[in-house]
Write a structure and sequence with these properties.
The structure holds two protein chains of two kinds.
Chain A lengths: L1 H18 L14 H30 L9 H36 L7 H24 L23 H29 L12 H33 L12 H35 L6 H15 L14 H13 L1 H17 L6 H24 L1 H7 L3 H31 L5 H27 L16 H31 L37 H4 L3 H6 L13 E6 L6 E7 L5 H17 L3 H20 L10 E2 L5 E2 L9 H29 L15 H26 L2 H29 L7 H32 L9 H30 L3
Antiparallel strand pairs in A: 1-2, 3-4
Helix pairs in contact in A: 2-3, 2-4, 2-15, 3-4, 3-5, 4-5, 4-18, 5-6, 5-18, 5-20, 6-7, 6-8, 6-20, 7-8, 7-10, 7-13, 8-10, 11-13, 11-14, 13-14, 13-15, 14-15, 18-19, 20-23, 20-24, 21-22, 21-24, 22-23, 23-24
Chain B lengths: L5 H4 L4 H13 L7 H8 L6 H7 L3 H14 L14 H9 L13 H4 L2 H6 L3 H31 L6 H26 L14 H33 L9 H33 L6 E7 L2 E5 L5 E3 L1 E5 L4 E7 L4 E4 L6 E4 L5 E5 L5 E7 L12 E6 L1 H18 L14 H13 L4
Parallel strand pairs in B: 1-5, 4-10
Antiparallel strand pairs in B: 1-2, 2-3, 5-8, 6-7, 6-9, 9-10
Helix pairs in contact in B: 2-3, 2-5, 3-9, 9-10, 10-11, 11-12
Classes of the chains: A mainly alpha, B alpha+beta.
Chain lengths: 837, 427
């Protein structure tokens, strides 16, 4: 027994030193550990929540009475725009990212996420992007066109200041972190789990987060694309959304809501995952219908991409398409209902106990179901014609987002915080806070439905007396302040927990998932040895598993070679198939994020030459970052314990980096599809004058481009094959050919944009051709860099027959560039032959 | 900063009384038809004094007389803005575009003598209102029949029976619902209330609302009760079939409930779309921050649209700058004014009266300053009303004023300043 204890302490000491950030004064800036980064995300998101909450109180103060002179129209516009933007982009999504960063590896029994440095980079992007927004608010130049930034109001002629640019650039900067997180979560859940954790044994929260990450991969690109196009319009006059030059304001609405509606589910699904995790624990029985829920949430994710038009019912679309989207909006109720009834069945057949987290879950039930029901109402086309853009919709969306997100998240914070602090919070304060929030919330927003039905539009900074709105608004404001006090108390409760609350027993809620097998507070390495999982609730199967793992009875006990090790598993079965070596603390993520920030800030202030320099610098640092990965020699097959011998990940066929590239290309593909959607939309749907000129019909450029792209793809494949055979010099030669092909194709796309396309400022058609060519050109440049990088790595001995990922990952990029490039050539040159509709 | 713009939102304001008073004075004695008197007052030439003050905003002022008709129907919740000063009146009318957001009144001394006149409520006026009230009551009694008749007359309606049923039921259900709620909520009435429909489109939607509200309350009660029951239940005497709950509650129930709802909603929407082919077509053009209406005969008016009561009409909505939205809650839903596109909405006012509309899509700092009024005239007086438009617009002399750009106000400065002002620390 004593031996075991000493072994555990020895493991703890050596692993803590290995996984922690450097012990220098600024070492915390180099931290990449998922627990640290996750907590940073959560704390930063809560700070932004406070700012957004203060803005909400300003709104309620302004609307408390008729004709209030508290804020003027311009200030009010900034306040409501920033309230929405902060709560959506700087609070909700990052808070989920933070919780996922913190929880995913622990629940999966891993030591860290697949790409720890990427998560650190994501955090800095989030912090800097969010800070740009807040600084703009302090300087009085915050965005002021509403959080969905409808054009033309957000376009240059009607928003001449930098307010809109702040939004477009700040949010895009923040979304970089969301996309990074999505790629990371996808790869982590797919590959970086502990032994025996088959997909069907994963905790449900991991399923939820996985589906959410997939939705983020596909759902964020339209927003990023829209922001880039609008910024191009604002900065360089490319008229994508300008109806006087062939653009279309509705294109913005489509792109925004193609993101915006999935976003609602991106926010809701993780919260539902929290409910599915916490509710069975307090019901004292496993959740009813595990596979039903998995099926339901996958269905929900798919359907949620077909609903975006229900935000556009009043824009004058034909009734049949409205009816289609209305039906889809109703259809999404079904998977939601499946989950709700699974929760109800679990409660009915369990022995529920009412702890603090459960109280918030009960609040969630009432508010979210109410919000869902008003959601059904606004999905009804004629009814939406009345309540669209009124306070009814404001009430509805707060019911859904506060009920469907904030309440479960509060439950989650109360549930998991003992794991962070090792203490449990005060019941009395927590309960009082809950009731204040619950009562205050309903007072604010239940009445607001009626305010909307009595005709009060949203975003009115003041209203006259005598319309029946006065007392409703006054009560809403009172409720708003009650709710704010409640949230203040809840946050205070969580804050003082760290210092003053009593120590909590281990696994105080008697949960079954692996994160409770870890010591609390959790050390940087999570577990001293990785468990072998045989069921969905390992802690229920073996309550002593935590102590056993700490003593090194699992896999990968202790440290070797200063390697930061975790297991890689087969995607479905969870059988270990590789040893994943994770990178350690580094300042590179911070430096890259600072340079990226330099790019965005120079763009914001219109110093485009500096933006160009920063872009080059970002590419340079990114290559340096990549250069420091990998090993210069072939590693041996390693014994991970229990007589299991595994290859190191870089010697496998599909290492985590390869999967990371696959998921990056998925998000890139979504970006491409939405770009093509925009091009075709402007071509087919947009009314207005046709373009004065088309792309000149030639043969030589398209043929050259297609040839160059084909040669590039083939050469890259041949390089991989040659390397596989051990023909090193041949591989290098093929890579040089691929570089030449990429260069040719790059020149081809530049010729299209610069010489063949009509001037991009003249008409949206020219602008969209330029955008397509720009996309193709950028990817040729990336393929060029990829092949060049592979060539250098090969020359410096980082590539061998067994270590071939530096060739195979760029090869993926090449294939993608080839396929999209040929499609682009077709779209650009064949469409003018088809003609206008 | 003043909020004088709001006087526009409450078209029934002091100058309406003034006009009414003037008109009533002009009516020959012995005239018994009070309604006609009230109706005529808007058509009569302006009194000199009035013209001097209100000239730039003639039409809006003039219509206020007639808008008065409907106000007694709006219930106790509606109260006209009292004591709007003459300075504000003047600014409102003259600098309508600028709305003198941040400007000081220029109305000053010249307007002073009028103040007392404005505030005085002439007895005749009140009587006129009573007469109208009676008349409208009478119309109300036959309202159902007339609506039904109109419904049948429409040949292009897909499901006339359903729609008739909708109109009748929505009125009844709305009345019952309002009666039930009014105790707690002081009523669903209001000049912008979607729950006090005055036309078939709004009535159908209002019916949808009450039906959906009932269903939603049932479901919400059911779920909440189940959760509380599960939390309270001490003895676990029986297990609930999990399959039944999942299949019954998760799949079958929502599927059938929503399919039914979808069917009725689609019919309602289809009906409103089917109506888009009949009746006169008006053109509503939105600019920051003003509505301009064009009539089939080519006339234009600003801020007020004259239509014939009981007749379905179309509004083709366009925008000259950013996206706005045309919305008359008591007549029907809204339709966006999207630059580069023309969107159509089909509406009908069942009875003569003034129905208030507003811009519903955020369109910049002047968003709240885009109210307008749809005035429905009885068939016999409609041509008179149309004939008056040109004259009024000529008198009004609206000019296109340059659009003030939204300035990037210093939010924090504003907030601090406002807080200080609020606390009385700074002037």
């Amino acid at each position: 027994m004593k031996d075991t204890h000493e072994t555990a302490l020895r493991f703890h000491d050596e692993l803590t030193a290995l996984w922690g950030p450097p012990k220098t004064r600024l070492g915390f800036l180099a931290a990449v550990n998922h627990s640290i980064i996750g907590l940073r995300f959560i704390i930063t998101a809560l700070l932004f929540f406070l700012i957004g909450g203060v803005l909400a109180m300003l709104i309620r103060a302004q609307l408390a009475g008729p004709e209030t002179h508290f804020l003027d129209a311009a200030a009010y516009a900034q306040v409501f725009t920033m309230h929405g933007s902060i709560m959506m982009f700087l609070f909700a999504i990052p808070l989920i990212e933070g919780m996922a960063l913190y929880l995913l590896p622990k629940m999966l029994g891993a030591r860290d996420l697949a790409f720890p440095r990427l998560s650190a980079f994501g955090y800095w992007c989030y912090l800097f992007g969010g800070s740009i927004m807040i600084l703009a608010l302090v300087a009085g130049v915050a965005p002021d066109s509403g959080w969905f930034m409808y054009t033309p109001l957000a376009s240059r002629p009607f928003s001449p200041g930098i307010n809109s640019d702040v939004w477009l650039i700040g949010i895009t900067f923040v979304e970089v972190s969301a996309v990074c997180a999505a790629v990371e979560f996808m790869t982590t859940v797919l590959k970086v789990r502990t032994a025996g954790m088959a997909l069907g044994r994963m905790p449900l929260l991991c399923w939820y987060l996985w589906v959410t990450a997939a939705m983020m991969l596909v759902g964020f690109p339209p927003l990023i694309l829209g922001s880039i196009l609008l910024e191009l319009e604002r900065a360089f006059g490319l008229p994508f959304f300008d109806p006087t030059r062939g653009g279309d304001p509705l294109l913005w609405q489509h792109l925004f809501w193609l993101f915006g509606h999935p976003e609602v589910y991106i926010i809701f699904l993780p919260a539902a995952g929290i409910v599915s995790t916490i509710l069975p624990v307090f019901a004292g029985r496993p959740l009813v219908g595990y596979s039903w829920i998995v099926a339901a949430l996958i269905a929900q994710a798919f359907i949620s991409f077909g609903l975006w038009v229900h935000h556009m019912f009043t824009t004058g679309l034909p009734h049949l398409s409205l009816a289609f989207f209305s039906a889809a909006s109703l259809l999404v109720v079904v998977p939601t209902a499946v989950q709700i009834f699974a929760w109800l069945a679990t409660l009915l057949n369990g022995k529920p106990r009412l702890e603090l987290p459960m109280l918030w879950i009960l609040g969630f039930f009432f508010i979210f179901v109410a919000g869902g029901l008003t959601g059904v109402m606004v999905a009804i086309v004629p009814f939406d014609w009345q309540v669209h853009d009124t306070h009814f919709v404001v009430a509805h969306l707060h019911y859904v987002l506060v009920g469907g997100f904030l309440f479960p998240v509060m439950a989650g914070l109360y549930y998991w915080l003992p794991q962070v602090t090792g203490r449990r919070s005060d019941q009395g304060l927590g309960k009082a806070a809950f009731w204040l929030v619950f009562v205050g919330f309903n007072l604010t927003f239940l009445l607001m439905h009626l305010t909307g039905l009595l005709g009060m539009p949203r975003r009115t900074f003041a209203y006259p007396s005598g319309l029946g709105w006065d007392w409703l608004n006054l009560l809403s404001s009172v409720g708003g302040f009650v709710m704010a006090i409640g949230f203040g108390m809840a946050l205070l409760d969580l804050l003082v927990q760290r210092r003053f609350s009593p120590h909590a027993e281990h696994n105080l809620w008697h949960s079954g998932t692996l994160e409770w097998a870890m010591p609390a507070p959790v050390p940087g390495y999570n577990v001293a040895s990785l468990p072998f999982v045989t069921g969905r609730d390992p802690l229920h199967d073996n309550p002593r598993i935590g102590a056993e793992l700490a003593a090194g009875t699992g896999l990968l006990a202790g440290k070797r070679n200063e390697w930061r090790e975790t297991l890689g598993v087969e995607e479905v079965t969870g059988r270990p198939d590789q040893l994943v070596l994770l990178p350690g603390p580094s300042y590179l993520p911070l430096h890259t994020a600072i340079l990226t920030g330099g790019f965005f800030v120079s763009f914001l202030f219109g110093v485009y030459w500096a933006a160009g320099l920063f872009a080059v610098a970002v590419l340079g640092v990114a290559l340096l970052w990549l250069w420091r990965t990998g090993l210069p020699t072939d590693p041996e097959v390693v014994d991970v314990g229990h007589n299991i011998r595994l290859p190191v990940h870089i010697t496998t066929e599909k290492p985590i980096g390869w999967w990371g590239m696959v998921f990056t290309l998925v998000t890139d593909g979504s970006f491409f599809l939405h770009l093509v959607f925009g091009y075709l939309f402007l071509w087919v749907v947009t009314p207005g004058a046709p373009p004065p000129r088309m792309v000149e019909p030639t043969l030589i450029e398209p043929v050259t481009l297609v040839l160059a792209l084909s040669v590039g793809v083939l050469a890259s494949r041949r390089a991989v094959a040659a390397n596989q055979r051990g023909a090193g010099s041949s591989a290098q030669a093929w890579l040089l050919l691929a570089i030449a092909a990429a260069l040719t194709a790059l020149v081809g796309f530049i010729v299209i944009a610069g010489m063949l396309a009509p001037p991009p400022k003249e008409h949206a058609y020219g602008a969209s051709v330029a955008a397509l060519a720009g996309y193709g050109g950028l990817h040729c440049l990336l393929a060029l860099l990829g092949s060049g990088f592979g060539w250098l790595r090969h020359r410096f001995g980082y590539v061998s027959q067994r270590r071939s990922q530096d060739l195979r990952i760029p090869d993926l990029l090449w294939r993608y560039t080839g396929v999209t490039g040929v499609l682009l050539v077709l779209l650009i040159f064949a469409m003018p032959l088809v003609g206008l509709p | 900063m003043t909020l004088d713009c709001f006087a526009l939102r409450i078209p029934m304001s002091c100058n309406a009384n003034l006009v009414l008073e003037d008109q009533l004075a002009a009516v020959p004695s012995g005239k018994t038809n009070k309604h006609e008197a009230a109706q005529r007052q808007q058509c009569a030439p302006w009194q000199d004094g009035v013209r001097r003050i209100f000239k730039p905003n003639g039409p809006v002022g003039a219509y206020r007389g007639e808008q008065h008709h409907c106000h007694h129907r709006m219930g106790p919740a509606f109260r006209p803005t009292p004591d709007t000063g003459p300075g504000e009146q003047l600014r409102r009318s003259g600098d309508r575009r600028k709305q003198a957001h941040y400007e000081t009144p220029a109305g000053g001394p010249n307007a002073k003598p009028e103040e007392e006149r404005i505030r005085r409520q002439p007895p005749e006026h009140i009587c006129a209102e009573c007469a109208d009230h009676k008349r409208d009551r009478k119309a109300d009694e036959h309202g159902m029949d007339r609506m039904a008749r109109d419904g049948n007359a429409r040949t292009d309606v897909k499901m006339p029976g359903l729609i008739e049923f909708g109109h009748v039921m929505s009125t009844r259900v709305a009345k019952v619902g309002c009666a039930a709620l009014s105790a707690a909520t002081a009523g669903c009435a209001g000049p912008y209330s979607a729950l006090e429909p005055a036309g078939p489109a709004a009535a159908g939607i209002s019916l949808l609302w009450w039906v959906m509200l009932g269903g939603a309350l049932l479901i919400l009660t059911g779920v909440t009760a189940t959760v509380l029951y599960a939390m309270r239940r001490r003895r676990r005497d029986r297990d609930w079939s999990e399959k039944t709950l999942l299949i019954g509650g998760g799949l079958i129930f929502p599927f059938f409930a929503l399919s039914t709802l979808m069917f009725f909603a689609f019919s309602e929407g289809q009906d409103q779309f089917a109506n888009r082919r009949s009746g006169p077509i008006f053109h509503a053009h939105a600019d920051q921050w003003l509505w301009t209406f064009r009539y089939p005969d080519g006339q234009t008016s600003t801020g007020v649209l004259h239509v014939k009561a009981g007749e379905t009409f179309q509004v083709d909505v366009t925008s000259g700058d950013v996206i706005h939205s045309f919305w008359v809650p008591r007549l029907g839903g809204k339709i966006d004014a999207v630059p580069g596109r023309t969107n159509r909405i089909s509406l009908r006012a069942d009875r003569p009266g003034a129905y208030h509309g507003q811009c519903a899509e955020y369109c910049g700092v002047g968003h709240v300053e885009m109210p307008f009024t749809v005035v429905a005239h009885s068939a016999e007086r409609y041509s008179d009303a149309l004939a008056q438009i040109g004259e009024r617009e000529a008198t009004a002399g609206f000019t296109l004023i340059e659009r003030p750009q939204p300035s990037a106000g210093k939010v924090v400065g504003n907030i601090v300043e406002s807080v200080l002002r609020w606390l009385g620390i700074s002037g």
